[in-house]
Amino acid sequence: MTDSKYFTTTKKGEIYELKADLNSDKKEKKKEAVKKVIASMTVGKDVSSLFPDVVNCMQTDNLELKKLVYLYLMNYAKSQPDMAIMAVNTFVKDCEDTNPLIRALAVRTMGCIRVDKITAYLCDPLRKCLKDEDPYVQKTAAVCVAKLYDINPQLVEDQGFIDQLRDLLTASNPMVVANAVAALSEINDASPSGTTLFDLNAQTINKLLTALNECTEWGQIFILDSLSNYTPKDDREAQSICERVTPRLAHANAAVVLSAVKVLMKFMEMMPVDSEYLTTLTRKLAPPLVTLLSAEPEVQYVALRNINLIVQKRPEILKQEMKVFFVKYNDPIYVKLEKLDIMIRLAAQGNIAQVLAELKEYATEVDVDFVRKSVRAIGRCAIKIEQSAERCVSTLLDLIQTKVNYVVQEAIVVIKDIFRKYPNKYESIIATLCENLDTLDEPEARASMIWIIGEYAERIDNADELLESFLEGFHDENTQVQLQLLTAIVKLFLKRPTDTQELVQQVLSLATQDSDNPDLRDRGYIYWRLLSTDPAAAKDVVLANKPLISEETDLIEPTLLDELICYIGSLASVYHKPPSAFVEGRNATRRVLPTRAPGSGSTSPESETAAAVVPQAPQVIPQASQGQSDLIGDLLGMDLGPPASAPSAFGGAPAGFGAAPAGFGAAPAGFGASPAGFGASPAGFGGAPMQAQPEMSAGLDLLGGGLDSLIGGGGMSQPAPQPMMGGGNMGALGDIFSLASGPGLATGMYVEPKTVWLPAAKGKGLEISGTFARLQGQVFMGMTITKPLPFLYTVSVIRCGCQQLRARAWRSAAPSPVCRAKSSWKRPSLNRNLSFILSLSSGVAASS
């Protein structure tokens, strides 16, 4: 009769019947009662009230009954710790039983009962079992040490159990060795110090390799993981270990195979690159990895994630196995995508024909996500293999002719990348792309098409009409499309300035006036400023040569890849992240691949010579030699002196660009003013012009005529310039880098954050905040006035005692693009900011 009858009872008052049966004198009745108790416990019934009666059943010679009682104890001991003490004497007695199965069962159960009161009684029985003559008891006790360490690490260290585990590494039984290695590995991973608990030497390694052939598959995994942490002393020892590990590649368990691959991949790093054994080992690694792909999908996925790492490290291992990674119709999507990624990594000039044929076939599948990835894979192949780029482009054009919407859009996205990789080579297909302009509805595809039109505007006769069609629904577009459209129209204007003035003014107005997106607004202001002040510089910036893109962008960083190779077969190799990234409390010890010994043939003579030369540490700020100009001026290209023929800051565009479009004849208010970062303000004051640098303002007045022209006042007298180090170019950045002389250097460059001097609540809406700093021998006061309602700003000379303070002011609110340099200070605004820089002579205290 089966045991299903124990799970079908629904009688009331069953607990009382079980209690009576558990105290029965008949062994069979007692055994049946315990089985019923375990069945009730399994289905979730609370039978903890029977604890004393079940414990009384421990005193039996029947092994089956004892196992059932121990199972009950493991489940309820934590909720009944006081009553669990009753079983301690029986545990101690069972640990000295003549039957090794009972001894092992007792020590295993005590290790599983996570109760501190019982843990104290576990030490003596555990110590005896670790020295037991029976290997089954020893291997069970070894695992029990790891469980005890999880409960009370200090107790394990104080009782010397770790030393006893080290002694078990030399045991004659392979299962004892494997369990000792497993326990030490678990303890080592859980140890907060991260120190290695057992040293692997040649003798220990030989013992582990001997046990490797005879222990269970899970024991083999622990031994192989420990071997991977060993660093051989030379390539001969590494080769010897690899020869003994290689037979594990034929194991039926995928975990054993991956652990063996991990050991071999690590030790291959120590072998000379021209070694014949290395070539042989490379050939041997391919078949077991291919075999893993015939397992169920979940195992396939784990294998493919590991193969992805292996292919990035050593693509030669699987370069002849491309067909194994071809997608099957019934593969799950996660397996398909991994296979696709590995196919691209293995693609080369020799196999690109069959790869492209396969990818083209995938592009006709019904799974939209997979089709998109397949089309992108064709583009990645074109970028990776230059000789086959034309064939890839031809394949993409064939796919565009299918007129399938999502295929066309993905093809346009990847063709943009191909244009970046191979400029001025495949532009003849632009006309074909423009035919599909109306079908584009995805932001990335629309942005890519706009980029292509803007980049090659001089070759597209109706480029302005195409871009204007996108401009009609500008505010409804995705931010990615808006940014790309703004840049494309500016490119078009710089290439064809005569007939695109209205278009560029329209897009700049939309970007700066009507947009709430800060990225779009900032880019619009930057373009406006560039075009209004120096179109030649704008052309150099916007139409600069783009860096060529590379297929290496999706590769794992080499240092991380080396670390992940050391974790093949674990969760880290599936996530492609180190364990510390997803395991809390993981010790920070990083695993790294061993390095080849010098002269092992791993490097060329030139590279060895280069490695022998110790490079000098680069200077952060190298000293300028005689005859050289100032370093800061050279690095930043800041020629603050008056240019020979500088156009007015608000004047028209230089020759070659035609007349500046409407709106650029006079820069809008705020573009004339110097924003922070233009080299005209001391640090911390948000862009206020420094009075201590008259030579700068003489050459380039960033206020576009100065404050006086705006408020109608007379010219202010300028204080005498302070002497500068390094010439005139030093003035703008001398304070920033502490390179200027003067008494201000004694106090350092720290500027306190602004504090609110007059809160808006007390000032009837007017808020004043500011700070003081000493720069270049002068005391500066930075002040911001914020008023939520329109009012007239007046700026006058402020006197402090007998000292005169000179003030310049400007609005920090973003200007409207339609304003001119003569904009009224009374222009309505929801929020007005007025910022001051007050320059005090050095004799005035900061508190003034």
Automatic annotation (TrEMBL):
Annotated ranges, domain Clathrin/coatomer adaptor adaptin-like N-terminal: 12-534
Membrane recorded as keyword: yes
UniProt topology in membrane: Peripheral membrane protein
Pfam families according to UniProt: Adaptin_N
Coiled-coil spans in chain: none
UniProt subcellular location: Endomembrane system
Matching InterPro entries: AP_beta, ARM-like, ARM-type_fold, Armadillo, Clathrin/coatomer_adapt-like_N, Clathrin_app_Ig-like_sf, Clathrin_b-adaptin_app_Ig-like
GO biological process, one term: vesicle-mediated transport
Keywords, comma-separated and alphabetical: Membrane, Protein transport, Transport
GO cellular component: endomembrane system; membrane coat
Chief localisation class: membrane
Source taxon at top rank: Eukaryota
Protein family membership: Belongs to the adaptor complexes large subunit family.
Protein name: Clathrin/coatomer adaptor adaptin-like N-terminal domain-containing protein
Lineage: Eukaryota, Metazoa, Echinodermata, Eleutherozoa, Asterozoa
